[in-house]
Amino acid sequence: MEQQIYKGKLTQFHWLKIAKKEELTKNTFSLEFEIPENLKENFKFEAGQFVSVKFQSNGQEVINDYSMTSAPYEKKITLGMKINSSSGTTSQLSRNYNVGDQLLVSEPSGRFTLISKPSEFRTIVGFAAGIGITPILSHFKDILHNEPRTRMFLFFGNKSSEDIAYRQDLENLAKKYSDRLQIFYFYSQEKTANNFFYGRLDEKKLSLIINQILHLDDTDEESTIWDAVDEVLICGKGEMIKNLANACYHHGIPKKNIHFELFEEFNDDIYPIEKEFPLIENVEVEFKMLGKEYQTELPTNKEKILQQLLVQKFPVPYSCKSGICGSCECILEEGEVELLENEYLTEKEEEKGHILACMSIAKSKKIKLNFDLS
């Protein structure tokens, strides 16, 4: 086992052997890992979670997060990966590591998860773009396997038909669960016979989907399929998530039922800030991180805490800056803040004083934070 390292929180890594490597498209591939018997418990996971992989790239040690495409019932760890450039770290991973090699893999984490409800009738809609299909695929496999009364709709966007990762897996699911799963493919750079499926998944496309696909409900003649949607899953780039999450919300889906996973740093708020706060100048901030104490002063409380600490070059942990990943989770030990949005923390954690620094506005003259959660 690797020593614990700090990556937002202390993370445990283990050496795992690559059991299978498969090229999916010209720039995506998958890795399946062999889990030794003594690590089975360590690598139990929920659909939608990810692991971090630690490896050498261009002579440097890097850590990348990759979502699992496998479902828990499959009892294996399979990751989907996209090569964004020939010199990028994932490209190095693809070229330098093969079946039989070992990599340091973290224990599963992440909260892009759903509570299983096998006895209920549910309708779940998924939106994915490109490699964003990976955690969505894990969810769909798991739900279809465990929830015999749940119906699902997937709207999957790619540049072209050649860029679709996991198409065969999706088609196999659609065939096996033809009575409960429908999949629709959209292309942003390939003309289609039906213009409906041409273009990106955004708020305009969602309106068309609601009106032309999720309209008549065979199970309830007085409502539409969209009216029956219980949960929405979204995974892709930040701008897509922002557009679709707000569109779903404006079309009647409560924010608590809209779940998203971000695959890149995104500095915008997913939902617009609807509150105004009294101006506070010269906010005193004390925080603890890796056992060290820090002190500083924020000019005002107009900007969120994490973003202001980063401007001042403090090495505070972060990834998405949008309240999704949880990397900047900390404990508010003194003072008052407003947590604008929260896709990550549980109610119990909030009650214990946990906040996300990237989504918190100072509401008192002094605040004290502790990033050392473990």
Automatic annotation (TrEMBL):
Q: Which InterPro entries match?
A: 2Fe-2S_ferredoxin-like_sf (IPR036010), 2Fe-2S_ferredoxin-type (IPR001041), 2Fe2S_fd_BS (IPR006058), Beta-grasp_dom_sf (IPR012675), Cbr1-like_FAD-bd_dom (IPR008333), FAD-bd_FR_type (IPR017927), FNR_nucleotide-bd (IPR039261), MRET (IPR050415)
Report the residue ranges that make up the 2Fe-2S ferredoxin-type domain in this protein: 283-374
Which cofactors must be present for this protein to function?
FAD
- Keyword tags: 2Fe-2S, FAD, Flavoprotein, Iron, Iron-sulfur, Metal-binding, Oxidoreductase
What are the FAD-binding FR-type domain coordinates in residue numbering?
Answer: 11-115
Q: Which CDD domains match?
A: fer2 (cd00207)
Which protein, by its recorded name, is this? Iron-sulfur cluster-binding domain-containing protein
